[in-house]
Amino acid sequence: MIVVAGESLIDLVPQHPEDPLGPLAPRPGGGPYNTAVALGRLGTGAAFCSRISTDGFGEALLAGLRAAGVDTSLVQRGPEPTTLAVATLGPDGSAGYGFYADGTADRLFALPPQLPPGATALALGTCSLVLEPGATAYEALLRRESARGLLTLLDPNIRPALIPDPDAYRARFRSWLPYVSLLKLSREDAQWLGGTPEEWLAAGPAAVVLTSGAAGLTAYTSQGAEHTVPAERLKVVDTIGAGDTVNAALLHHVPTRSALRTADWPRVLRYAARAAALTCTREGAQPPTSAQVGASPT
Q1: 72: Cβ–Cβ under 8 A, 6 or more apart, which residues?
Q2: Is pLDDT of 239 > 90?
Q3: What's the pLDDT tens digit per position in 153-210?
Q4: Residue 125 β-bridge partners
Q5: Beta bridge partners of 85
């Protein structure tokens, strides 16, 4: 089982991107939430570890997890409102976000006493590693489960508007790397954080996967290997959830530390590129099922 820890929220997606006062459609979202749903749709056993509101949005988020077959036994509940993210869409479908996160339920996440015995991997990232007091609890979970031998995936998925002290966050990011098995980040994240794949690998991860939008995906390994595959060309509606789908596709093929050491990276990356491309053909974060992605490319 793969445990995904972090925030869930509601994306408010413009129906007419050219009109700033046009209608907004609520869609389930949040990087970790999307990753968990994507894992479930790919047929990989997954559990979601977070704190979700008891409001109507929270009930819808829980329903989405259950519909995807995701275990919700680690979900904490609270009466505070659900975080909202207002999306803006560029001409190419790329998304930016404004957040309404003060006093919301997911910020009050508490460290669980233990994960299920069958857990083999832990994935974290995005807002949950920024917004306190929950961020400290998620960081403690990363350190604890890494020490127990779980594969740990970190997707920083930087949201600059939520980070009041960029230098402090960059230092905190570097402090996580010794506890990270697989670092996945976008080229934009990499530029904001500073550093290189070689530097990050030297700090701890066994592999780094860098996504570059239409330019494809590249995996760098601690053995000095580098593998690049092109993005799959499909009609883009928006890019919401594409990176989260990549997380799920990677973990679908590499669910343990031992699998990470023996991964067929070109094959894994081609599968991830296909899954992410299908997500981009749909409004909001709507990851594909395993049947829609098809067999793993050879």
Answers
A1: 47, 48, 62, 65, 66
A2: no
A3: 999 999 998 999 999 999 999 999 999 999 999 999 999 999 999 999 999 999 999 9
A4: 155
A5: 11, 99
Across the range 6-22, mean pLDDT stands at 86
pLDDT for res 236: 82
CA distances from 259 to 35, 148, 229 (A): 19, 17, 20
> Which position among 19, 55, 244, 264 bears the catalytic label?
244
How many helices (H) and strands (E) the chain has is answered by: 10, 14
- The pTM of this model reads 0.92
Q: In this prediction, what percent of the chain has a pLDDT beyond 70?
A: 97
Q: What tokens appear for 280 in the block?
A: 């981009």
Length in residues, the chain: 298
The string of DSSP letters for 82-137 reads PPEEEEEE-TTS-EEEEEE-TT-GGGG----S---TT--EEEEEGGGGTSTTHHHH
Tokens of 205: 């991860």
How far apart CA 12 and CA 236 sit, in angstroms, is 18
Report helix, strand and coil shares of the chain as percent, to nearest 5.
Answer: 40, 25, 40
Q: Which residues of 175-211 are buried (b: 16+ CB within 10 A; e: fewer)?
A: ebbebbbbbbbbeebbebbeeebeebbeebbbbbbbb
Q: Are 189 and 157 within 8 A, CB to CB?
A: yes
**CB-based contact 220:226 (threshold 8 Å):** yes
238 catalytically annotated: no
pLDDT at 203: 97
**Torsional class of 243: left (φ above 0), alpha (ψ -120 to 50), beta (otherwise):** alpha
Q: Which amino acid is at 192?
A: W
The whole-number pLDDT of residue 298 equals 39
